[in-house]
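Q: Entry one of two.
A:
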Amino acid sequence: MKTMKKSVLLISVGLLFAVATAHAQDKVETTLSADVVNHYIWRGTDCGNVSIQPTLGVAYKGLSLSAWGSVGLDKDDNKELDLTASYSVGGFSIGVTDYWFNTPEKRYFYYNAHGTSHIFEGYVSYDFGPVSAAWYTNFAGNDGVNKDGDRAYSSYFEVNAPFKLGGVDWTATAGAVPFATTTYNTSGFAVTNLALKASKDIQITDHFTLPIFGQVVANPSDQKAYFVFGFTLQP
């Protein structure tokens, strides 16, 4: 618990310092949308079948707060609610996410260290232009364990490279888990996410476009591959 409090304090101080010293947009921006996907794949891991994934967020002067959820049409799929606070300036971003799943503990407001369904993750990222890189680490909650049975502080590192081809927006992704953890089912360093995603806006009427996307995902560590297709609904 002391480790969790120290981590939250350090990240909070970092966010407050960034807010006090940086300049960004001067008006509140709101995000409201929902993705519908045929398969929920997260960092190369199979998390469910056909799912609806809404997003609600606000941003002001680089500081953003957002809520993201996922509900599968299959009754056996997990339900998920993620809350994120982040700050961005230039190409640099820092943030904290509270992930919640309806298993093993179905109560949301239950934070017992040995039974909660919450996972708390901190991240830092930087957009270099041609590529962006991000590092994520779980620092509290229902994290996995390492080979010794201790908290793994499960981490994940990802590089993304966006480009345009044939009038379509593409993104190539390479992600890896650096250490052994039961969270990602790895016994050491493992490449868990190689993906290629294409996105395009389809003009339906003069006032309505439908963003669609397709993504091929491979997880070399698990020897599995997936194809994800979806579309986004937004005002």
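Q: Entry two of two.
A:
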Amino acid sequence: MLQEKVLYLITIYGYIGIFLALVFGIIGLPIPDEVLLTFAGFLVTKGKMDFFSVVCIAFIGSIIGVSVSYMIGYCLGWPFLEKYGKFLHIKEKSFNKVEKWFDKYGKYAIVIGYFIPGVRQLNAYYAGITKRPYMRFAFYANLGGLLWVTTFVTLGVFVGERWELWVKNFHRVAVALLLIICVSMGIYYLLKKKNK
């Protein structure tokens, strides 16, 4: 099972395993990123890893993954993804959803998109393909990456021994968090509009 192999990779190679898994996971390989980060947080509670080192290494891995994805999108464009996207688990239908998401929420899509598997990977490709300025994209992508990494590593520290149970319920928790974020954004938008 892929998830078990990834966790084994972290157990054996430590920080290097986390770094490589995050880079390739953000590029689009089917790596369970949230599970990886939560497990790393659990290892922190066991004294096998340092919290700030895990966050820094994972953050750097996410920056490189996002940058590589952006450059692939920028240099090769949609024809490349159309031809080879299936190998990166990228479909045109998913790409179209990201496009609507971007048009509607802009910079918030980049930050919040990190917390949504699939959108996290597609955001960078979309930004590259549509030739959005890299520095502006990178600012929000890196902010989202830092929040995402810190959240899940902290969660791993918090749940400790129960990390496997949490992983089993991950999708339910993710949906609940996404709903909370969307409702909060909606309320914020309405209040802002009302004040104007």
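A: Comment on entry two: The chain has one domain: 2-162. DSSP finds ten helices and no strands in the chain.
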